[in-house]
Amino acid sequence: MVQKITLTPVTTLPKLNQPVVPAGSQPGFGELLARAIDTVNTEQVKADVTIQKFLTGEIQDVHQVMIAGQQARLTMQLALEVRNKVVEAYQEISRIPV
Asked: Most exposed of 10, 46, 64, 75 (fewest Cβ within 10 Å)?
């Protein structure tokens, strides 16, 4: 005997921890790009300040310096990988015959 399975459609529910935003008020690509660049810049500046504090003796813990440097390095790597993917997607789209 074959058992019949009924599938019900899955609907996406809004996330509970995020506010509902009207469609027209979402940030554009340029604004998202500016925020990402600001984040990378902030991490780089934070790493530089931490290194300066270590060199002047304000910070004795070398772990803080290493962590700040690694965070800056990782955010830069992420930005470069995203850029590479965007360039790759653009090149792929430009190869599509019209």
From this structure: 10
Number of domains in the chain: 1
> Residue length, the chain?
98
The string of DSSP letters for 67-91 reads HHHHHHHHHHHHHHHHHHHHHHHHH
Residue 12 falls within a domain, yes or no? no
Q: What domain range includes position 77?
A: 28-94
Q: List the Cα angle 75/45/71 in 5-degree steps.
A: 30
pLDDT per residue rounded down to tens, the chain (98 residues): 666 666 666 555 455 555 655 666 788 888 988 999 999 999 999 999 999 999 999 999 999 999 999 999 999 999 999 999 999 999 999 999 88
Say how far apart CA 42 and CA 29 lie, in whole Å: 20
Which ranges of the chain would DSSP assign to H, the alpha helix? Answer: 29-56, 62-94
